[in-house]
Amino acid sequence: MNSDIRQLQPTALWNKFADLNAVPRPSKKEERVIQFMKDFGARLGLDTQVDKVGNVIIKKPATPGMEDRKTVVMQSHLDMVHQKNNDTTFDFDTQGIEMFIDGDWVKAKGTTLGADNGLGVATIMAILESTDIPHPAIEALFTIDEETGMTGAKGLEAGLLSGEILLNLDTEEDDEIGVGCAGGLDVTATRSYKEEEMPEFKTGFEIIVKGLNGGHSGMDIHKGLGNANKIMNRLLFDGFENYGLRIAEIDGGSLRNAIPRESKAIVVIDEIHSESFRSEMNDLANVIKTELKTMEPKLEILVSPTKTPKYIMELGVQEGLTRAIYAAHNGVYRMSADIPDLVETSNNIAKVVVKNGEIKIACLTRSSVETSKKDLANALRATFELTGCEVEFSGDYPGWTPNMESPILKVLTQIYKEHNGQEAHVAACHAGLECGILGTNYPSMDMISFGPNIRGAHSPDERAQISSVQKYWEFVLKILKATPKR
Fold first, then answer.
1. DSSP states of 336-396 as a string?
2. What are the φ/ψ torsions at residue 348 (nearest 5 degrees)?
3. CA–CA separation, 151 vs 143, rounded Å?
4. 225 to each of 68, 76, 148, how far by Cα in Å?
C-alpha cells in the first residue's frame, strides 16, 4: 500500500514521508522517532545532537559556492495527532500509518495521516540526504511535542542554533506565507462528586454522538463545525428538564487541539417514561442534524437502551455541570480588528469526562492577543468555578507577532510571484506555530512559515494534495537557492 506513495513525485520527499510514517510518533511518546532521526543524521555523517528535552538538531554544511549565504534553520515537529474513526482498529503505539492514493490526495485508512507535520520533516530529511540540491548551511531543527504543549520549542536553549533565517514548514495552504500565529492556553476544570446508588424503577440508556468532521481547533474553529461535547450536553440538559434524566458517565472528545467528533453518555430515566423519552430524544436529534446538515451531513445521534448502571451523579453536581457546559464559550470569541477574516480569539471545549466520581473538562483557548486570551480564559474559569470546579491554567505559549518588513518575507513573496504568476497570500493564522516560542530565545532570527495543501488536519479525514506537494517542493528548492548573502 505505502509502496504506491513512494512512487509519487518528488520521490525524495515522499520516500522520507513513508519512512517516517512507519515509525509510531504520538506526542509525549517520541522516543522511537527521536532515535530514528538520530540514526538518520549519523548515517549521513552529519553533526547530530539531541538536546535535553528531546529535540533533534542536524547540521549540514553549505554546498560548494553557497558558503557565503546566511545559515538557514529548517524546522518541523516530529510528533503527530493520533485520531481514528470509532470503527477503525489501530494501535498508534505499535503500528505505522497505512496510506493510500485517492485521486490527487494521499490519505490514511481510518486514521490521521501525519502530514501535519510529517511532510515538513520529510522535506528537511530529503534536503539533508541530497547530493545535488544547492543550499546554504542548514541547521535542521526537529522539535517534539508540538501538538500537546509545544514543550520541545519551549525547552530549546539559546545558543544551540546560529542560523539567521528560520523556515517553519508547518503551514497548510500552498498559496499562503505565514508571518504570525495565535498563542494558546489550556484551561482544565475538575471536581469530584458523590456517586449515588441507583434508585428503583430506573432504566439505562446509551446516547452516542458521532460522525462529525472534527478538525483543527485553530484553523477550523470558524467553520461552524459541530462540537460533540456541546451537542451531547444539549441532549442531556433537555433530558433532565423534561424527564429527570440522571447521568452515570460521559466520555466525549479527545485531544485539546482537535474539535471533538464523538461523545458517549450512559444515563438513566424512569422506566415509565422510556418510550416517550426515546421519542423526544430522537426528535431533538433530528432538529440538531437539520441545524448542522450543511457542515455535518454525516452526524449521527443514537439513543438506545443499555444495562442500567449501579451509580449516578449526585443531582446538584449534575445540574451545575450541564449548566456550566451550556454556558461555557465554544468557538470564535472575537475576530481580529486588524487583519481581515482572521480569528483573534477562540475556545475549544475539547474533552468532557465524567466517571467514578470525577469530572474533567479540558479546553484550549487561543488568541493572537495575550490580553484577549486571558480574558476568555477567565470567563471560562468563572463559569466552571460557579459550579464548584477547580480550574487550572497550563501550557501557556505566546503568539508570533507579524513582521511585515521581514527580509525573508520579501524573498519568498518575490519567488512565489515569479514561479506562480500571482501574489502569495501573506497572512497570520489562528493555529499555534512554534515560531513565537522559538523567537523568545532567538529574537533576532528572521522567521517565515509555509507548506503544502493539507486538509482535515487532526482528524481521520486528514489528507495531503499530491500536486500541491510538488508545487511546494519546487518552492523550497528555489528559496534555498535564493538565500541572501551574509
1. -SSSTT-EEEEEEEEEEEEETTEEEEEEEEEESSHHHHHHHHHHHHHHHHTTT-EEEEEEE
2. -120, 115
3. 9
4. 49, 28, 22
Domains in the chain with CATH codes = 2-182+399-481 (3.40.630.10), 185-397 (3.30.70.360)
What is the DSSP annotation of 455-466?
ESTTSTT-EEEH
The C-alpha cell at 358 is: 470525577
CA distance 162 to 167: 14
Cα angle: 35, vertex 118, 450; to 5 degrees: 130
What is the three-class DSSP state of 195?
A: strand
What is the helix (H) or strand (E) element at residue 251, kind and residue range? strand 246-253
Active centre residues (catalytic) = 79, 146
Angle at CA of residue 477, ends 66 and 441, nearest 5°? 70
* Parallel, antiparallel or unpaired: strands 446-449 and 454-455: unpaired
Which helix H or strand E contains 261, and what residues bound it? none
410/446 Cα distance (integer angstroms):
11
Cα angle: 475, vertex 476, 480; to 5 degrees: 120
| pLDDT value of residue 431 | 87
CB atoms within 10 A of CB 10: 18
What does residue 362 show for φ and ψ, rounded to 5 degrees? -115, 125
The pTM (predicted TM-score) of the whole model is 0.80
Q: Name which of 199, 206, 172, 146 is nearest 26 in CA terms.
A: 146
Q: pLDDT tens, 38-93?
A: 999 999 999 999 999 999 999 999 999 999 999 999 999 999 999 898 889 999 99
55, 99, 175 from 464: Cα distances, Å = 25, 11, 14
Extended beta strands in 33-126, E state = 47-50, 56-60, 72-77, 99-102, 105-108
The distance of Cα 335 from the centroid of its chain, to the nearest Å, equals: 20
**What pLDDT, on the 0 to 100 scale, is given for residue 447?**
97
- For the chain, residues with pLDDT lower than 50 are none
Q: Specify the DSSP element, H or E, that contains 280.
A: helix 274-291
Q: What is residue 337's predicted lDDT score, i.e. its pLDDT?
A: 87
Task: Record the cell numbers describing residue 424, joined without a space.
Answer: 502569495
User: Residue 274's CB: how many other CB atoms inside 10 A?
Assistant: 16
